[in-house]
Amino acid sequence: MTNTTSPHHGKALSLLREMLYIRLVEETMATRYAAQEMRCPVHLSIGQEAIAVGVCQALRQSDRVFSTHRCHAHYLAKGGNLNSMLAEIYGKDAGCIGGRGGSMHLTDPEKGMIVSVPIVSSSIPLAVGSALADKIDQVDRVSVTFFGDASVEEGVFHESANFASLNKLPVLFVCENNLYSVYTPLRERQPARPLTDLAKAHGMKGIAADGNDVDAVLAVTQEAAEHARSGKGPVFLVFDTYRWREHCGPNFDNDIGYRTEAEYLDWKRRDPVEQQKTKLVTAGSLNSHDLESMKSHLQETINNAFEFAIAAPLPQPSQASQFVYA
Amino acid sequence: MANTRIISTGDAIRDGLTEIACKDPSVIFLAEGVADPSSVYGTIAGLRNHIAPERIIEMPVAENALTGVAIGAAMMGKRPVLSFHRVEFALLAMEQIVNNAAKTHYISRGRHRVPIVIRLVVGRGWGQGPEHSQSLESMFALIPGLKVLMPTYPKDAKGMIISAVEDDNPVIVIEHRWCHYAQGVVPDGYFTEPLDGPRAIREGKDLTIVSSSYMTLEAMRAAEQLEKLGVSTTVFDLRVARPLILDRVFASVMQTGRLMTVDTGFRKFGLGAEIVSEVTANCFDKLKAAPVRIGMPDHPTPSSRGLVPGIYPDAIRIVREASAGLGIAQNKIEYAVAELIAQRKGLPIDVPDPFFKGPF
C-alpha cells in the first residue's frame, strides 16, 4: 500500500476499499449465480456502492441501519460478516439467520445492521421506532433507513416522516434514487419536482447529493447525522444513482427495452468506484500496483468466503419450525 | 389476599395496564387520542398520573407507520401497547402486523423479539354497521408468530392484559365493546392470568359449547335455560385464539359427544370452523351429532335496527340450535326463549344488556 500518514488519505483509501469490496462480492455472486447454488432472488447494488459506503462511514458502530430487499451493500458497509452473508444466500445453517431469509433478509445486529425487509418501505417505521426508543431513553444514537425512490410513493413513508419530524427523532431517511422501480422510470411514477421537496412537506431538513460521489455522500451524511444527534430532528437525504444490472438477478438487461444502453453507459462513466480511484491516483496517493494488490487481497478474502459458504452444511428440516415464538 | 372490587372489564383492562406500566418502565403507550378526555373508552385513562409523559405517545392518524414504529421500539427493548378504537383500523396496519410483528423473531433466528400488544375493539349494535362491527380474529389467528387473545370477564381481562404486556411475542388483544361493560369481582394490584387457552366456566355432561369474548356471556345465559330444559352444558370461554390449545375441549367432547361453537365474528372461516375441524379429527368416534357452528351471517353487517334482527348471535339462537339437536319439545323451547326475552326487560336489541353483572 502507498506509504502515507494523512488521515484524509486513509479515509479516502478506505472508502475506495469498501466500495471495491462490495463491488467484487457482488460481481463474484453474478459470476457464480448460474451454478444455481444461490437459490434465492438476489438484488444487486452494483453501481450504487457509494451511498452504502458513504453513509455507513459517517456512522458509529452503535448506530442502526434498516434496509430493504437490496441490502447486500448496506450489510457489508455496516460491517456485516461476509461468511454469514454468503452462507445465508447459499441457504446454509451458518447463514446470518440460518437460511430463514436468504438474500433479502440480511441482518447482523451486533454490527448495527438490524434488519432487512423486502416489502417496499416496510422497514422505514422500524427505524423510526428504534429512534423513538432512543429518544425516550436519551441514548445518543442515529437510526438510518435506506430505501429506493419508489418507497416515497408508499403511504407508510409519509406517515413515518411525519411522526419522526413531529417528535424530532434522530432518523436519517436515505433515499437511493436509482431512477427505476423494477422497469418503470421515475418520471412515469412521480411528478417532476425535486425529491427533497418531500422533506419540506414534512417540515424536516432535506439534502441532495451526487450518489455516485462517495465523498459527497459522506460529507452530507456527516452533516445530517450531526443534525439528528443534536436533537434537531430527522434528515431526508436524496442520492441520485443508477442500478447497472436487472432489478432482480445477476444479468444486464439494457436490451429488453425499458431503458437504453446509452443511458447505462452514461452512468457507467460516473462509476463510483472508478471515480474514487481516479481521485486517489490524481492526488498521487494510489498507484496501479497498490490498487492491484488491494484488489487481489479483497478477491482472496471473497473467494474464501464463497468456499466457506459452499462447503457449509444445509440446515435441518426440523429447524424450520423454530423461533416462531419467543 | 388482595382486596377486591366489583368493576367492569373495561376498567379492569385500564387497571391492568396501569399496574404493568408502573411495574415496568419499558412499557409505552401509543394511540390516537392517547390522553384525550376519552382515552380509548377510558381503558387507558389517567396514565399520566402514574408514568412519565414521554411514555404516552400521541399517534398521528397513521396506523401502519405507528404499528411499525411500535414494532421497531419493541425490537429495541420497549413494550409498546398500541390501541385501536375498532378492529377495522388495524386493517391499515396489516402489512406491519403480518410481516414485521409476526416474523421478525423468526427471520432473525430468535435474535430480535417483538413484545408488542395491539388492542383492537369490536363494536356491536347501536348502528355500528359494516365497518365498525367486524370481529376479525380469524384473520389474525391465521398468522404464525402472533398471539391472539379475546378476554371476556373483568378478572381474566386484567390478568390477561398484564400477561400480554409481559409476553415477549406480538399479542393481538381483541376486546368486545360489550364486554367492556361486563361487571365482576377483580382483585386489586398486580396479578397475571395464564395465556393457556380455553377455560371451562360451567361444567355439564350433555353439550360442549366453545364461545369467545362477548358470545361467552350469551352462551352462559343460554346454558342456564338449557339446564332448565334438562340439558347439562359445559361452556368454554376460549380466551386465546392463537395458539389454539384445545386439549380441554377434546376431553369435554369425549364426555358430551356434542359440540357447538359460538363466534363474535363471521361463521364461515371463523374460529368455529377451525375448532370444529380439530375436534372432529380428534374425537370423531365419540361425536353423537354433527357439530354446530354459530356466528355472523355471510354478508356485511348493516346499521339499522330494522335490519339487524337475526344477524348478531345471542342466547336465544344458542338455545334454539342446541335444543333442536337434542330433540327437546318445541313448547319447552318457546318457554325458555320467552324467559330470555323477558330478561331483557324490553331493551332494544342494539344496546348492551345490563344482565352481565358479576360476580363471575
Largest beta sheet of chain A, briefly?
Answer: 6 strands, parallel
The CATH top-level class label of chain A? Alpha Beta
Q: What percent strand of chain A?
A: 5-15%
CATH homologous superfamily title of chain A? Thiamin diphosphate (ThDP)-binding fold, Pyr/PP domains
Q: Which geometry of chain A do the CA atoms define? A: globular
CATH fold category name of the largest domain in chain B: Rossmann fold
Separation of termini of chain B? Answer: 18 Å
List the helices and strands of chain B in order: EHEEHEHEHEHEEEEHEEHEHEHH
User: Strands of the largest sheet of chain A, in order across it?
Assistant: 2-1-3-4-8-7
From the spread of the alpha carbons, the general shape of chain B counts as globular
Assembly type of the chains comes to heterodimer
| Backbone structural class of chain B | alpha/beta
Ranges of chain A with pLDDT <50 over ≥5 residues?
1-5
The radius of gyration computed from the alpha-carbon positions of chain A, rounded to a whole number of angstroms, is 19 Å
Major β-sheet annotation of chain B: 7 strands, mixed
Helix content of chain B: 25-40%
Compute the number of strand runs of chain B.
14
CATH classification class of the largest domain in chain B: Alpha Beta
Structure commentary:
- The complex is a heterodimer of chains A (326) and B (360).
- By secondary structure, chain A is of the alpha/beta class.
- Chain A has one domain (7-311): Thiamin diphosphate (ThDP)-binding fold, Pyr/PP domains (Rossmann fold).
- In chain A, helix 1 (7-32) runs antiparallel to helix 10 and helix 5 runs parallel beside helix 6 (155-166).
- Chain A has a six-stranded parallel beta sheet with strand order 2-1-3-4-8-7, sandwiched between helices. A two-stranded antiparallel ribbon of chain A has the order 5-6.
- In chain A, helix 6 links the parallel strand 3 (143-148) and strand 4 (171-177).
- In chain A, 43% of the residues lie in helices and 11% in strands.
- Chain B starts with a strand and ends in a 17-residue tail after the last helix.
- Chain B has helices at 9-23, 63-75, 94-107, 137-141, 154-166, 214-228, 247-256, 271-283, 315-326, 330-343; strands at residues 4-8, 27-31, 56-58, 79-84, 117-122, 147-149, 171-176, 183-187, 199-202, 207-211, 233-237, 240-242, 259-266, 292-296.
- The mean pLDDT of chain B is 95.
- Classes of the chains: A alpha/beta (326), B alpha/beta (360).
- The A-B interface holds A 66, 96-98, 100-101, 105, 107, 109, 114-115, 117, 119, 122-136, 143, 155-156, 159-160, 162-163, 166-167, 322-326 and B 28, 54-55, 57, 60, 62, 64-78, 95-96, 99-100, 104-113, 115, 144-145, 147, 168-169, 243.
